[in-house]
């Protein structure tokens, strides 16, 4: 069956609509669960719903989806109450309470499910579908229920967006404003529960937590704004639902629910690797660039300080080249690493080598200015840190890389005088004649 033929099938349309709605509602609400550090909450509520489904079947003997969902809601509310009471009135933390309730309720559900399966009507119950879901069984009434519940959840989220935002980031400030943060927290828990319940038939108890958290985590990689994150999470959830539904129609006996979760996971992995701000690939690129920048700065400083030493000791002011071995020893870098950095600096036009002695390097005019600025900045920072109490009124931000631009002219003048006092003032190497032409520079460079 082709994609187009699958979309024309009424049953596929119902399943597709239901899964997309499930992805949107769970993605939107999952953002708040994720930001509040309650990633396990969806898992706990989904597992806690199983005993309710089983008890409803034992009491009524009916396979009504509506009654099953009602039982799941009641069971989830009981689980939510126990989680809240345990975390508030004992020394057990909320994450431990979540894990405790999850395991206990799911254990009860499995016991009841096993009992039902071995009873006379067990083979006809189909309750095991609630474990892993059976999206293909969705019909018009199920989708209508999901539409109504999903619309209510999204509407409430829109109306209470500011309050939920405050609850997620600073509940204490919200209480100071007089907002009922406890009531809002309870309402959010109920909304999470409803989102879980409408997804049980499609995705199942075991995988429902992934539908709540995975789209939210994926969206977090692409934005720093909560509004954008909520929208992106809903979009990613919808795309996962559509992907799982359409793919399962093309492959025989391929379960829709797990494929939906795998689709959400694929989006997460893509974001994990390729997100511009937080992706692993771009972080690696930025790290390598920073490492090369630091290496080049270390080599520039080492070359400058070696030339300073030669001038002070031998009073040489021209024809001064420094061998790579000495730069390697001065910087503490391997010989090959220093050569690599010098090659990069040569491409920038900051250093040049002696053609007759390829392992000997000097500055160009631009390079000596860059190196002087680096040395001056480093020694000003050294002076500032040695006398931090003396300079505490200067308003210097130690998180900044450059200190010169943070100082006023009188402050800079005073610190330069202090550098002179400690004999830390960088020698002005700029008086040394730089390469005078491109041709000479390419031939090895005239000494700076």
UniProtKB/TrEMBL annotation:
Q: Kindly list the residue ranges recorded as spanning the membrane.
A: 12-35, 42-59, 65-84, 96-116, 143-161, 173-194, 200-219, 226-247, 259-281
**What InterPro entries has UniProt attached to this entry?**
ABC_BtuC-like, ABC_TroCD, WH-like_DNA-bd_sf
Instruction: Please give an example of a GO cellular component term from this record.
Output: ATP-binding cassette (ABC) transporter complex
Cell compartment(s), UniProt = Cell membrane
- Please tell me where this protein is predominantly located: membrane
Which Pfam families does this one have?
A: ABC-3
Q: Which UniProt keywords apply?
A: Cell membrane, Membrane, Transmembrane, Transmembrane helix, Transport
State any GO BP term from the record: cellular response to iron ion
| Topology versus the membrane | Multi-pass membrane protein
Which family does the similarity line name? Belongs to the ABC-3 integral membrane protein family.
**UniProt cross-references to PANTHER family, sorted A to Z:** ABC-TRANSPORTER METAL-BINDING PROTEIN, METAL TRANSPORT SYSTEM MEMBRANE PROTEIN CT_069-RELATED
Q: What functional role does this protein have? A: This protein is probably a component of a manganese permease, a binding protein-dependent, ATP-driven transport system.
UniProt-recorded name of the protein: Manganese transport system membrane protein MntC
Q: Which organism does this sequence originate in?
A: Brevibacillus laterosporus LMG 15441
């Amino acid at each position: 069956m082709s994609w187009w033929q699958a979309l024309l099938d009424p049953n596929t349309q119902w399943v597709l609509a239901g899964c997309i709605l499930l992805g949107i509602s769970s993605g939107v609400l999952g953002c708040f669960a994720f930001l509040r550090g309650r990633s396990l909450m969806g898992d706990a509520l989904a597992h806690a719903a199983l005993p309710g489904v089983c008890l409803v079947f034992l009491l009524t003997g009916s396979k009504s989806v509506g009654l099953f969902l009602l039982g799941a809601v009641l069971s989830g509310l009981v689980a939510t109450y126990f989680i809240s009471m345990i975390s508030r009135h004992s020394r057990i933390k909320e994450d431990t309470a979540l894990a405790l309730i999850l395991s206990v309720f799911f254990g009860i559900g499995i016991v009841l499910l096993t009992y039902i399966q071995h009873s006379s009507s067990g083979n006809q119950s189909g309750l095991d579908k609630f474990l892993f879901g059976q999206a293909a069984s969705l019909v018009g009434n199920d989708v209508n229920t999901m539409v109504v519940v999903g619309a209510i959840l999204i509407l409430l989220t829109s109306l209470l967006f500011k309050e939920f935002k405050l609850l997620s980031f600073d509940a204490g400030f919200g209480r100071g404003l007089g907002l009922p943060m406890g009531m809002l927290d309870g309402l959010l828990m109920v909304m999470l529960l409803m989102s879980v319940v409408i997804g049980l038939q499609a995705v199942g108890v075991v995988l429902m937590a992934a539908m709540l958290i995975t789209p939210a985590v994926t969206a977090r990689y692409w934005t720093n704004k909560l509004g954008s994150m909520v929208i992106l999470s809903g979009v990613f959830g919808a795309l996962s639902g559509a992907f799982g539904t359409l793919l399962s129609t093309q492959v025989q006996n391929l379960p829709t629910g797990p494929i939906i979760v795998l689709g959400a996971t694929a989006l997460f992995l893509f974001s994990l690797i390729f997100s511009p701000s937080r992706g692993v690939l771009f972080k690696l690129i930025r790290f390598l660039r920073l490492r090369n920048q630091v290496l080049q700065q270390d080599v520039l400083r080492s070359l400058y300080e070696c030339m300073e030493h030669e001038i002070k000791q031998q009073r040489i002011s021209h024809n001064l080249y420094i061998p790579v071995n000495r730069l390697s020893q001065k910087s503490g870098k391997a010989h090959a690493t220093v050569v690599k950095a010098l090659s990069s600096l040569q491409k920038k036009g900051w250093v040049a080598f002696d053609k007759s002695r390829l392992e000997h390097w000097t500055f160009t005019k631009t390079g000596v200015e860059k190196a002087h600025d680096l040395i001056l900045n480093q020694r000003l920072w050294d002076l500032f840190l040695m006398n931090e109490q003396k300079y505490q009124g200067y308003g210097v931000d130690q998180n900044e890389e450059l200190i010169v631009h943070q100082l006023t002219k009188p402050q800079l003048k005073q610190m330069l005088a202090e550098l002179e006092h400690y004999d830390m003032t960088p020698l002005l190497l700029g008086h040394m004649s730089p390469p005078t032409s491109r041709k000479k520079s390419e031939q090895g460079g005239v000494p700076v």
